Amino acid sequence: MNNLATKAKITWCPGCPNSAILVAFRQAISELVETEKLKFENIVISAGIGCHGKITDYVNVNSFTSLHGRALPVMTGIKCANPKLTVVGFSGDGDSFAEGIGHLVHTARRNSDIKVFLHANQVFALTTGQTTPLSPKGYRSKSTPFGSIEEPFTPLPMLLESGATFLARTYAEDIAGTKKAMIAAITHKGFSFVEIIQPCITFFDTREYFKDRIYSIPENFPVQDKKTVLEFLTAPNEKTPVGIFYNVEKPTFEEQLWS
Amino acid sequence: MVDIFTIGIGGQAGDGVKEAGGTIGTLLAKLGYEVFVSFANPSLIKGGHNFARVSFSREKIWCDYNKLDVLIALNEKSVTLHKNELNQNAIVFADSFDLADLDELGTKAVAIPMSVSATAVGAPMIARNSVALGALGYLLDLDFKKMSEILQVVFENKKPELNIKLVDIGFEFLEKIGLSHPKKIEQGKSEKELIDGNTAFARGLLAAGLDFYISYPMTPSTSILHFLAGEQKNYPHLKVIQPENELAAINMALGVVYAGKRVAIGSATGGFALMQEAFSFSGGAELPLVVAVSQRQAPATGVPTFSSQADLRLAIHSVHGEFPRIIIAPGDSEEAFLAGANGLNLAWQYQTPVIALMDKIVSEHSTTSLINTDQIKIETGKLAEKIGPDYGRYAITADGISPMAFPGTPDMVVKITSYEHDEAGITVEEAEPVKAMVDKRFAKAETLASELDRQETIKIYGDKNADTAIVFWGSTKGPVLEAVKYLDRPVKLMQIIWVEPFDTKKVTAELASAKKIINVEGNHNAQMASLIREKTGLEVSANILKYDSRPFDPLDLAQKINILCHE
């Protein structure tokens, strides 16, 4: 049995919630393999560049560590070339919402059968804390010492409108919740996107902010009703709901390519 | 004197000028002639001025000529624009003539009923050039029966009955007035096919087992995308994807390669410029990739539908970091076919990116060629035989080439990364393993260097012992080889096909004894001359450069070479 560890030394900051995401992912694929829903050799993980991108070195499965912002087209290429592979990608908000946003919305549009787990830390951490397209307006960093003057994106409604067929949000510290969403995302056929809120404890520590705001949506959430889901995701909300918001079936890019 | 006949066809975009040039070219090729077809068009869809030129001969011709023996003018403007390009005895076919043009042209002007005949037989206006085709058939004394048989096939999907009726009308119209051209081209015996470089390149890829072609449209590379998209019906394993941009195209291609499929991508040099970071990745991560890069006049958007050879240095020096790469610059359709086939095989044998460096002329102009797909074998490169948990995608080997494996193989983990890595594909930052991996890639470059002796990296034509040498690369091959027919002294001709790795040994051996070296290029800075100097220490004596985005004319070029030879 593959114990999933590699010889690579983990170089995230001690206490970084990225480690919780790593644990959730290892648990998710172990469970999927144990229940024979997946074979180790058919798993490919991918990542862009940023703190999140180190994860590929820490999981002993097939991996493709891409360039900054470019993991998604690579993953589509892998899935097109061998549709029996399960292609799971990790990305950061700088990676997917700054450098690679074009690929993100187009990959959702074509419902490519790949899974994207976003390490949403609202900061460029590896380059020491600059503002990203998910940082709140007014965010102060070395590149925006007087506060960012730009409004942030809201990932889930944007992905919903772009054509994603599975949308979830989790909180990194909630390993069980993240694992559950990951399993659902991986077993979904089509483009899955999971926004994992991952406070950056070094440059933008949002743990206090999220502590009392995170709440789970009910099990009977209308995950097939796009209009209701969009209204819910765009309605003003002081709190931060987590769970699976959207889950529908549509023909995937790869199955149409090979049909 | 060389017996060559040239036909020009002019009209607006939307008049079917390119198709008419292609039809005439195909007809002549099937009648056994050697043919070259060029096409010039501004970057617009309707209106403007399009011009196709067909030169043909009994003997091999390498490019088309500016001076026309027949001009088929689909509008009056074409007469005005091209009346100064007519040879003695030239004939101009048009529906009607501007009075001033008529005065000037005299007996050269022959009005033929193109538009009225199209209307009379109920054919669309775009088919009116078929009347001119018939007239041309009579003028050139072509075998009418054979011509009709060939056109049945050529017009297969374009209402053959109506088009052939129009051809008949044109033929009979000229028969009635008894007009024939004094210049007769002896019947040809060639059995070659008329093919453009992009199509030939794509067929080379297919012969070498292409699985995927991924491309964002950009002139002059786009017809590769169109051709291969259509070929999906003949090759069920072939998949063609047009993604959101060039960055997606190359990164998608890297994913395809990682999963074990053979892939090529293509763009103009501007699109290739956008791909730079991922191109570097393919070199560092040792992912086999073929990139068709077709040059057009730059900087920036430049002159989008016209040609250039100004991107030699871009191809050689593109991207950050050092790694081996192969750059092949075909000079015509036959060489483009080989660049596609050998390029894909070499990419897999050496696990490194290969560029086929073309230009608008190689890509889009057509010439009679021998395309032999049977001679192409599929080379898979070094695949991992021993599988198991110890597998390392970047295992260090004596020849620098690591056995490849692909995801989906039981008990095997395949790790690829854009970071510098160890043999297992895990990120490294320590000095020693970083250096080890650079050394491994350059051990591969050493192995690749031995390939130069086995490949046709340069070609020598003309008089091998002449003391004047003419050097050229890419599409300049055509006008240079054609110009040689008009030189007043023997010269040695050297075409450089492999520009990276550069075959210093062969180039030095061929040029060292030359008393005079003349370099001919389609750019301002004489990039090949500087490359020769850099690699061999030899200095060219003179450059003939053209950077107005238009091709060399063989007669103009011959004149320039003759003058330089006398200096």
Brief summary:
With 259 residues, chain A is α/β, with parallel strands linked by helices. Helix content of chain A is 33%, strand content 17%.
The tally of helices of chain A reads: 9
Distance between the termini of chain A: 35 Å
Tell me the count of domains of chain B: 3
Largest sheet of chain A: 8 strands, mixed
Proportion of strand residues of chain B: 15-25%
Low-pLDDT runs of chain A: none
Q: What is the number of domains of chain A?
A: 1
Structure characteristics:
heterodimer, A: 259 residues, alpha/beta, Rossmann fold, 8-stranded mixed beta sheet, 8 strands, globular, B: 567 residues, Pyruvate-ferredoxin Oxidoreductase, domain 3, 3 domains, 7-stranded mixed beta sheet, 20 helices, 21 strands, 20% strand
Task: Write a structural description.
The complex is a heterodimer of chains A (259) and B (567). With 259 residues, chain A is an alpha/beta fold. Chain A has a single domain, classed as Thiamin diphosphate (ThDP)-binding fold, Pyr/PP domains (Rossmann fold, 3-Layer(aba) Sandwich). An 8-stranded mixed β-sheet of chain A has the order 2-1-3-4-6-5-8-7, with helices on both faces. In chain A, strand 7, helix 8 and strand 8 form a beta-alpha-beta unit. In chain A, helix 1 packs across helix 6. The longest helix of chain A has 17 residues. Chain B has 567 residues and is α/β, with parallel strands linked by helices. Chain B has 3 domains: 187 residues, 3-Layer(aba) Sandwich (Pyruvate-ferredoxin Oxidoreductase, domain 3); 182 residues, Thiamin diphosphate (ThDP)-binding fold, Pyr/PP domains (Rossmann fold, 3-Layer(aba) Sandwich); 109 residues, Rossmann fold, CATH 3.40.50.920. In chain B, 38% of the residues lie in helices and 20% in strands. Chain B has an 8-stranded mixed β-sheet, with helices on both faces. In chain B, strands 9-8-10-11-13-12-19 form a 7-stranded mixed β-sheet, sandwiched between helices. The interface between A and B is large, with 37 and 44 residues. Strand 2 of chain A pairs parallel with strand 15 of chain B.
